[in-house]
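seq:
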Amino acid sequence: MINVFDILNERGFVAQATDVDQLKQYLSKPSSCYIGFDPTADSLHVGSLVPIMALAHMQRQGHRPVVLVGGGTGLVGDPSGKTEMRQLLTLEQIQFNVGALKKQLSRFLDFGDDKALLVNNADWLVDLRYIEFLRDIGRHFSVNRMLAAESYKVRLETGLNFIEFNYMLLQAYDFYHLAQEFDCRLQMGGDDQWGNIVAGIELIRRKLRRSAYALTFPLLATASGAKMGKTAAGAVWLNSEKTAPFDFCQYWINTDDRDVERFLKLYTFLPLEEIEAVNALDGQDLNVCKSILAFEVTKLVHGSQAALSAIEAAFSIFGQRRIPPDLLPSSDIPRVSGEKADAVPTTVLQKGRLEDGIPAFELFAEIELCDSRSAARRLIEQGGAYVNESRINAVDFRIGAAHLKDGGIVLKAGKKKVHRIKVD
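struct:
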């Protein structure tokens, strides 16, 4: 059986790893691995998909993923990758978020029969006795080495408080606890977590006399340099109430050409030999691959029906993308587009409002196609506003009942942001 390390490495998940040969030996039989998730919100976002997919690959290869939700460390805040202190949450807020995250992660992982575990580090951190913790755990840490960690060096410039300074010890203790309780000896995480993970490995070696391992993921950005999962409108959430499936699907359809192959490897389970065919494609064929990427990721996050509705809605608005039968055949994306647009973000207006017409710049701001009326005016002046595929050429243009087609009006901001108006 192929080693899961090789699968992760070939698909682009591995930035760094400790003792690769020993790690592969550890993964040569069913083993446990864990990743920590921060419960600062009731939903994860696209930036969390790489660690989620890594855990899913682990489970598919017979290993047991342990999802650690930082209910305890969330009360402190992780300084890694941050230039200022996070807002601290209450236990009640964190407990609510933990429940929401487990439901979300259940789309990717099977938690039945202990095939995957979800643990909350509040269960062992909140009741720690401080003096005992300092004596038993703190004595194994060098302050000089801690200050050399990248996560601390960045914060020293803007101010690192004592609560955050303790975070490395707490995360290392998590790893030690999971190694002791579940024989979990592999921690994975973003590359900015390397110092914290290695600290845990050292603690396990000193306290338990066992080997433990680290595997970190590259900190992803798009080819254009944008942070993964961030748009002008904010984060792209995995919760359908925060980011509608249509908008989520559009995020992936709008992938930069240079990112298509890389994202297919990271964010789908399509076979590598099929994905590598993308190298030889360009133009319309590459656009088809973006639709496949969008469909596959939306299916994983929101389910097959939501993915079908979103992709068909995109096809009906932006035009169909016929998929050659020999192109990524493992995807069950529809080969010919449908005519549905139910998944498009929609606002219902009273018909009377359209009788005299609504200034386009007001309507675009009202339905949040633009952030403000002034932004909508600029969009119109720059030729980026459309009603039913026709460019709006005047700032005083009014959208009214005459624009209704099949009971609706389609508005676009540029070629990628779409909203539908329905009449009550």
